[in-house]
Task: structure prediction
Amino acid sequence: MKTAWAVAVCAVALTLLPRFALDQLTHPGFYRADPERTRAAAAAVSKIPSGAVVEVTNSLGPALTSRATVLLLDGTPRQAPWVVADVARWEYPFGSPAAQAERVALLLGSGYVQVFERNGYVVLRRTDPASPDPL
Result:
């Protein structure tokens, strides 16, 4: 019985792996550093002023926590003055880069302007604090 239970748990884990962030560990590209993207990420983060409130992708949040209030960029409207997104690769909690790009497009249509873009990283700034919440 214990062996059957262990096999069942492993099967479920392997089936669900592609739906979660740990799936990235199975791709060789995850372990290769891309110097251009690394520089672009640092440049994007540098656009955020100290003390700001920012919605940011999961992977860039730690770079800002020491000097800004960091909120997770997802589908929930928070109206943060700043947003940093990565529309070139999958980021939690979005299902795909396209889903994150859709969120960025929605923000651009609801009072945000793009102030930076390089190698998939996008920085947005809210221009109208009274703008309606994006859906």
The mean pLDDT is 87. The longest strand covers residues 112-118. The helical segments are 2-16, 35-46, 61-64, 97-108.
